[in-house]
Structure formats: structure tokens, C-alpha cells
């Protein structure tokens, strides 16, 4: 279970303090899939960075399965993240000097989940599942954006993470590729009973999720059957 309590993230900008995230309470059960919605600047990226331990909150506590992530020393947090979190970025963030297969394999070398002897065959299997069997030796620059994001999805799920976080994963994609990428994320998360959090300001993406958490309404949750939040 993922639990966030009284979270605040503030940035100091000279004499000014900017509150990037202010969230009272959020609990997500294993296997739950949740859309995190809000307009640009509402704190989606900051919140995902907090949950993944890339940032620490100014105040409050973030726990996964009873472990307080925000309290871990940085080195422990890096290991925890490699083993526990799969992260999909809006702009893919693939390593340009590595081919498709190695982009996925390298993610396993930072974690201790998949035995070394099985790593290549597991990466190939995942890349086949996302429809890239014939692109294993290509480099990211040789792929379409949709293909790059599918590599990023394979990389994010390769260590069978408890927590899959995707930050506007479809923002750079057309409708067909968006649907593919979301379908893959949702399928992988369901198969491994992982938590899936997808940030978005796209209504079509929101409509796919049984649960929506709106950041715009100062951390209030909206019912799945309620009208979608206004993004004006
Ligand atoms: P979103 O992903 O929803 O667009 P962000 O999390 O990127 O929102 O940003 C939330 C707010 O925090 C914005 O007002 C942004 O300008 C501010 N912010 C984000 N990162 C920093 C930073 N490193 N320093 C100062 N302000 C920041
Ligand atoms: Mg963002």
C-alpha cells in the first residue's frame, strides 16, 4: 500500500517560497490504477518525483508497504528505487548510446531482481510483448516516438516493480500510440498486481482510469463517475 500524509514540497526562490505540492492524504492499494490529473504547474511531476524518492518532501511522510521512503538515506533510496519503482518519462529518456535491447538490460543491472543469466532473454521477451522484436539492435534515434515510448515502458516494468509511475507518458504521442502505451502499462500493472500512477491532463487518458486524483482541487479526490475536472 502507498500512503501519503500531509505532504508539502516547497521551493525557495530568493525570498519567495513556491509550494509545488500540497496534498493532505492519499492511499493507494496494491493493484490499484490511478490517474493523477491537473493542469501544467499543478505539481504532477513534483509529486511523482516525491513518490519515487527522487525528491524529498519539505514536510510529510511517504510510505510504501510500511517503509518510509522519505526517511531513507540517499544511497538506500537509490537501491530501493531501482528495485521497486518503474518510471516512464514524458520524453522517454532513453540512453542514446545504447540500442533498444541494452536500454532495457541496463535497467536490470542497477537492481537485484532478475538473475544476470536471465536478463537478456527476459528483455527480449518484454520487447516482443511491446511489438519491438525486430528493433532490438536499433538505436533510439532510429525509432518513432511511439516506439521509443514502448521501449521506455519495457524498461520501466523490467524489474517487476511494485510501483509504476508514468509522467504524462502519452503527451508526445498520437492517439493510436497513446492507446497502445496505456494499454501496455495497465496490462503489466494488472499482471503483477502493482500500483500504477499515471499523470495526465488528457481527458481521454483520464477516462480509462477507475480512480482519479485531482491536484488542481488542492489534493481532493473526484469520484470516477463524477464529471471530469475542469482544466481551464
Ligand atoms: P506539472 O508537472 O503539473 O506541470 P510541476 O511539478 O512541474 O507541475 O511544477 C509544480 C510547480 O512547482 C510549478 O509552479 C513549478 O514552476 C514549480 N517548480 C517545479 N520544479 C521547481 C524547481 N526545481 N524550482 C522551483 N520551482 C519549481
Ligand atoms: Mg510535469
Descriptive report:
The protein is α/β, with parallel strands linked by helices. The protein has one domain (2-222): Rossmann fold (3-Layer(aba) Sandwich), CATH 3.40.50. It is built from seven helices and ten strands. The strands form two sheets. Strands 6-7-8-3-9-10 form a six-stranded mixed beta sheet, with helices on both faces. A four-stranded antiparallel beta sheet has the order 2-1-4-5. Helix 3 (100-109) packs parallel to helix 5 and helix 5 (145-157) runs parallel beside helix 6 (175-191). It is globular. 38% of the residues are buried. The mean pLDDT is 92. The structure holds adenosine-5'-diphosphate and magnesium ion (MG).
Show the helix and strand layout.
Blueprint: E1 2-13, E2 16-28, E3 33-37, H1 44-51, E4 59-64, E5 67-68, H2 74-84, E6 85-88, H3 100-109, H4 119-129, H5 145-157, E7 163-167, H6 175-191, E8 195-200, H7 203-206, E9 211-214, E10 220-222
Helix pairs in contact: 3-4, 3-5, 5-6
The chain binds adenosine-5'-diphosphate and magnesium ion.
The site of magnesium ion has 3 residues, from helix 1.
Secondary-structure element pattern, one letter each: EEEHEEHEHHHEHEHEE
**Biggest sheet: strand arrangement:** 6-7-8-3-9-10
Decide which structural class fits the backbone: alpha/beta
Number of strands: 10
At the fourth CATH level, what is the homologous superfamily? Answer: P-loop containing nucleotide triphosphate hydrolases
Query: What level of helicity do the residues show?
Result: 25-40%
**SS summary, helix count:** 7
Main sheet?
Answer: 6 strands, mixed
Q: Give the quaternary arrangement of the chains.
A: single chain
In total, the number of domains comes to: 1
CATH level 1 name:
Alpha Beta
The residue-averaged pLDDT reads 92
Low-confidence stretches: none
Would you identify the CATH architecture?
3-Layer(aba) Sandwich
